[in-house]
Amino acid sequence: MSIDGYGTDVLLRNEPVQARSAARLSSLLDAAAEVVEEVGYERLTTAMVAERAGASIGTVYRYFPDRIAVLEGLSARAFRRFLDRISDLYRESRLETVQERVSAAIDVYVDLYRTERGFRVVRFGDVVDIRLLDGRRSNNAVLAERLAGIAGERGSQHDPEDLVFRLQVVISLTEALVHRAFATAPEGDQAFLEEAKAVATEYVHRHLDPPD
């Protein structure tokens, strides 16, 4: 099942088609995010989600067959929100170079760590399953392909296959440094966050110049 055309496969039993159903799903995911932050993804249960959301366990099972599906739903939502914000940012801003776009993407990623409940625990699903978003490719590969697609929409002249590979490297480097930044500091250790951006932009400068 695909969410919003991003190829993120999640095991939701009934994808909502009405506003009330969508609101209920959102409230369940919000509750799950709160619980995940408090107890970790390993201890999350559907019963905890139901209790926190003030819903029956049957309501939870209407959307999520098990706790893994809840985690998948959280990751898919974060993935969608990240790409939506990146797409809006790239469309509305004059980010002409790959370095500028990578830097902007890191800013959005860091902001998700700070503002998206449960994100620093579950992120894009890698802590649960390295192939959570697609089932065939790694989560980083899915993200890199989508970002490369956005670059292509803006007229990127880079070889698509090489661009996807380079973006996977950048994502892996950034993830490690940003995760370290938030390991001990609620708002993120600024030195590590600055280094994450410096490492990423230097890498793309070295491997993806000339700019678009």
How would you describe the oligomerization state of the chains in this entry?
single chain
Q: Globular, elongated, flat, extended or rod-shaped: what is the shape?
A: globular
**Architecture (CATH level 2) name:** Orthogonal Bundle
Mean pLDDT: 85
Q: Can you count the beta strands? A: 0
- C-alpha end-to-end distance: 34 Å
H/E topology pattern: HHHHHHHHH
Query: In CATH terms, what is the fold-level topology?
Result: Tetracycline Repressor, domain 2
Query: Could you give a short account of the major beta sheet?
Result: none
State the low-pLDDT regions, or none.
1-14
Radius of gyration: 18 Å
How helix-rich are the residues, as a percent range?
A: 55-70%
SS-derived structural category: mainly alpha
Helix count? 9
CATH class: Mainly Alpha
- In total, how many domains does the architecture comprise? 1
Strand content: under 5%
